[in-house]
């Protein structure tokens, strides 16, 4: 699952985090994911989700260099299913190991990654989570290229799952860089395209909390070709107040890793 949970903006009125947090947690729980990549999760929000979703552990990384403020892009994993063998992060910039924005990005943008071991099969894989800049067009293209290059080093042969809010549609150049067949970098494909069954739910992944925003499919789950995609969908659950839990919808993929029966 990938899910932008919307940062805790005090000016959000009926959509402030204290009114949404339980709905975000139950949305995650009801979809039964084993892995979750979040975006825009600030420290207090992640603390809430840790408390409400005790079946998950969270590997966090914040975009400020001190990791105490601002957006986190944590990876959550079901502890009954996976062990963590390694983890790390880097910045989407010309200097990936130095905190700060890159190219024309408005904010520092980060990649969080983890090497997991599946306790049911003893097979390893890498989960990568990110959030591309919403303003910098050059930054999004360069971020896609950098990410593909880094994946070749992080997971030269292991299966890869990439989750994120990429702030780009399937028709965009950054998306094409991520999914194109190239000599350099790991090959990736959209789970929506690989799914063995028709994709479920809306074809957009953004809301204004009360309505879907058409043609804004910017949240994606991408995988390496060795991963089988059984089904894929976008969750559009609303609650009794007639609102979505976030201004993004979670995107979910049911996949099978090599070695699974």
TrEMBL record:
InterPro entries: CCR4/nocturin_mRNA_transcr, Endo/exonu/phosph_ase_sf, Endo/exonuclease/phosphatase. It holds the Pfam family Exo_endo_phos. Residues 1-248 form the Endonuclease/exonuclease/phosphatase domain. One of its GO terms (molecular function) is endonuclease activity. Keywords: Endonuclease, Hydrolase, Nuclease. It comes from the Archaea. PANTHER family: CARBON CATABOLITE REPRESSOR PROTEIN 4, ENDONUCLEASE_EXONUCLEASE_PHOSPHATASE DOMAIN-CONTAINING PROTEIN. This is Endonuclease/exonuclease/phosphatase family protein. It comes from Halorientalis brevis.
